[in-house]
From TrEMBL, chains A, B:
GO CC terms, sorted: cytosol
Gene: pfp
Residues carrying the site annotation Important for catalytic activity: K210
Species this protein is from: Elusimicrobium minutum (strain Pei191)
UniProt KW keywords: Cytoplasm, Glycolysis, Kinase, Magnesium, Metal-binding, Transferase
Protein name listed in UniProt: Pyrophosphate--fructose 6-phosphate 1-phosphotransferase
């Protein structure tokens, strides 16, 4: 890394980032040969222990692993081959995970080799792969995106798929198989680890926690990578909008933020920018709020600000909100069934009105009434094609438009009743794709590199069925602690499509957690005032308190634990 | 500025930026007392000289002014009072213009005072203002937004308004009145300068060129402030999307970019990110392209990429495109008339369908046919309320949706004909508000500070009817050249609402200019390949080639002049 690496056709910042050297946790400074495995207690799954144990006879109850300085007992003389795959949506830092794995392997033995399966787990099934050489890697260090090997959403689940994966892993003579993904992909890694052991294979299967949504975390995983960078990008934009709002003083901006289900992103962006309203899906669910109640809540804030002469503001709407509203969840679930049950009948219809009428005729009277009450655009969006798992694609539903359209009606009513005399002009935004492939922040660049390096050390120590774990993340990177957490330890049993399935528990926003409590403590003040904060764009050079700070969510969560 | 200034409730970067010290052009290093006015040749307007001269008897033909080092002939012993107003949409750097004015005035004489009229020219008419003290200013240095004094879109045009402005300027005993705005606002500044001289007032009226759209430039004004920062912000986002597209390889992203009329923003963002398609409104107009021809052009690229196995790409759509399509321009103009002529009849109608039917009945057969052929959503948007000038609000028209919807039809046709076998999934974005209030780039922070300081020097030298001019912007800030350009020099006569009006000529993208020629030379290659560049977020610290570079547009334009 001492020499300066250059590529053609790139921006000035990109060129600089190629030569950024991530900070490695202190214990890894002398390479994998100087890292010792320390075994912790044997573990059990977070819930449903008996069932999970039965499903994972070979990988249940593994001990936690932490790494400490000392002579490694791993045999580094024999060269190994490892393969990595990226699974699911993009998150900033994926390339650094791969760089960390590569550097860890090469440091242990320059003859070790790393391969990447292409386009996600589908590439494992089709045996499409390429070698990640140091020269190839040099063009991707500290960059955003997954374009080095791409990603995909295929799962390796059926007996045929598992058999195919076994065949290709054996064909490639891989000693380790590293899966970079979210909760579902890591559940899948656990299944593969179990299957490989059952089949007598020696290949280590290791997971790496990735997702901008921030919902893959637990007692042992402080955060998933990409959440830091993505929320910083969204915060830059929301902060800019807050400043615009306070300068123009004539619009309400409604910003929908990506995040498949949990509202972590909206919460973190809320902390960083302090807008007037931050909706949290988990709260809506807990309070069993109806759409009408949410509108009442929004209208109350808008009317109160208007009474102070402020016909402007900023509201954050988590993408997943719609599925947390009990009546909407029920409607979406019923629509999923109707669309699946009458696929061929619906295909023959030509207009959306015809389809809508047909669908409504199949709904219960209560849901039919709700469906009819929705703005036409939203009703159409709810009937769009489902994803491969039969779920509605929430990113396609313009919840912010639904809320604004309903607010117009509500405020017109209030105006008639003499309770609202202001103006309400709304501008809407959706931020998602903008943040998934940003240049990773220094935090994510360091974190991902450490996660990858750590995964390599786990592989060299023949640990299988583990998730790469890097902890104490609010401390400087050199003080981070590394190790492995058994994948089975994070699992519970959930019913999916009528079947009991072991899955890694998705972390929703905890209403008793410190981050949400911080919001509750401050939001009334934010609603009334313009306490806006303007984070600005991610900085990579300059004072450490600007460039290296981590998320507020993590700070609040970890502060409590001290 | 030596002491560190802090404010509560702000981000880490914000805190750092408050203490950034802009680089002042060398000639201003020793303050206004050491700057001498050098008069250039007398000037004439860019066109319609006789008419403009007749309309501006007191301010026509003023000489160009450049500043050089030397003993000033201005009397700095007598303290002066100046007032500033921000006019029109936000642009990054407005606060630094004010800081530059303040510092220039105070350096000349600590007793000089600066006031800001509030909420734009409306504040001048209502005499709402506040003093900009150094303490107040310290909270806004190098920040985005116009929230220090806000802005507004009122114009000071009618005899009553001009009289009111005179009264309040005299009441405040202002020696200088500085208008920060775009082409229209600076035209207005020229009118006020002329009026004040005609009324025997000694108050200098000075303009400052502001607009993110980049369309206020000419032989003497290299660029307007804010264009650099806004295009850098949009380029960050578009670059991130390009990386996402190349990672996921399954979507076409259509990105609409703000810019009221001219396509400079789309062009600059195109240079910085090299997407597959960059539409330029001025080219569409010059080639008299119909909507159908634009769709053909887009479809051709999509089909060609698909044939190479690439069902993905990125297309940039300038917000103003719709008004450059001759048939759409005609339709919009006819709609403007119908909406104005039948306002009360339309107000009584309750549904959009009813209104649409009524409007169509008033159009010519050709335009009625076009209106009927448009997707319902777009047709509705075209009938939305007009701005105070009776113009359609292009930012509310989702041109990207129009194009995508029509592309779906076109590609379905091509598929039937066996000419398209690929997939076409589109995701749409609109970026505008995100960029108007970003933290100004180092370039804009320096440029705005110099523009403001220069405006103060013009004011101290009693120059009226001038636009603050800072040139040689591709050189380092210390080498920039400063002076004043007569506002009348940039004017020509245009017919607006049936009346001849003197206006500063709006700079559209020149099809014979170097920037557009660069696009033409490269776009076929960009269309076929993934030559994407990822600029990343604006950097404020670090190597100068990352932090201080200016726009590609300016580089190409100025390179030619060398």
């Amino acid at each position: 890394m001492a020499k300066t690496y250059k590529i053609k056709n790139c921006s000035e910042l990109q060129a600089e980032r190629l030569n950024f050297k991530p900070t490695l946790p202190e214990m890894f400074k002398n390479g994998p040969a100087s890292v010792k495995v320390k075994l912790g207690k044997t573990t059990k799954s977070v819930a449903d222990q008996a069932t999970v144990k039965k499903m994972f006879p070979h990988t249940y109850g593994l001990p936690e692993i932490s790494f400490v300085k000392g002579k490694s007992s791993a045999d580094t003389k024999k060269a190994i081959k490892a393969a990595v795959v990226l699974s699911g949506g993009q998150a900033p830092g994926g390339h650094n995970v791969i760089a960390g794995i590569l550097d860890g392997l090469k440091k242990a033995n320059p003859k070790n080799r790393l391969f990447g399966f292409l386009k996600g787990p589908g590439g494992v099934l089709e045996n499409k792969l390429k070698e990640i050489t140091p020269t190839l890697m040099a063009q991707y260090r500290n960059t955003g995106g997954f374009d080095l090997i791409q990603s995909g959403r295929t799962k390796i689940e059926t007996p045929e798929q598992l058999g195919q994966a076994k065949e290709n892993i054996l064909k490639g003579k891989f000693d380790a198989f590293i899966v970079v993904g979210g909760d579902d992909s890591n559940t899948n890694a656990g299944v593969i680890a179990e299957y490989f052991k059952q089949e007598g294979m020696h290949t280590s299967v290791i997971g790496v926690p990735k997702t901008i949504d921030g919902d893959l975390k637990n007692e042992h995983i402080e955060t998933s990578f990409g959440f830091d960078t993505a929320t910083k990008i969204y915060s830059e934009l929301v902060g800019n909008i807050c400043r615009d709002v306070n300068s123009a003083q004539k619009y309400w901006h409604f910003v929908r933020l990506m995040g498949r289900s949990a509202s972590h992103i909206a919460l973190e962006v809320g902390f960083k920018t302090q807008p007037n309203i931050v909706l949290i899906g988990e709260e809506v669910l807990a309070k069993k709020m109806t759409l009408a109640q949410i509108i009442d809540y929004l209208a109350k804030t808008i009317v109160a600000r208007s009474a102070d002469g402020k016909n402007f503001g900023v509201a954050l709407v988590p993408e997943g909100l719609i599925e947390f509203i009990p009546e909407m969840k029920e409607l979406i679930s019923a629509l999923n069934d109707v669309l699946a049950d009458h696929e061929s009948a619906l295909e023959k219809m030509h207009t959306i009105e015809e389809k809508k009428e047909f669908v409504i005729s199949k709904l219960s009277p209560k849901l039919a009434k709700l469906m009819k009450s929705l703005p036409a655009g939203i009703a159409s969006q709810l009937m769009l094609d489902r994803d491969p798992h039969g779920n509605v694609q929430v990113s396609l539903i313009e919840t912010e438009k639904l809320l604004v359209e309903m607010l117009h009606h509500k405020l017109a009513e209030l105006r008639k009743a003499g309770k609202f005399k202001g103006k309400f002009s709304a501008i809407m935004h959706f931020f998602g794709y903008e943040g998934r492939c940003g240049i990773p922040s220094n935090f994510d660049a360091n974190y991902c590199y450490a996660l990858g390096y750590n995964a390599a050390v786990l592989a060299l120590n023949k640990c299988s069925g583990y998730l790469s774990s890097v902890k104490k993340l609010v401390k400087p990177a050199k003080n981070w602690e590394c190790g492995g957490i058994p994948l089975t330890m994070m699992m519970n049993i959930e019913r999916r499509k009528g079947k009991e399935k072991p899955v890694i528990k998705k972390a929703l926003v905890e209403l008793k957690g410190e981050p949400f409590k911080y919001l509750v403590k401050n939001r009334d003040n934010w609603a009334k005032t313009e306490s806006y904060i303007f984070p600005g764009p991610i900085q990579y050079f300059g004072p450490a308190h600007v460039t290296d700070m981590t998320t507020k969510t993590l700070q609040y969560e970890q502060a409590k634990k001290k």
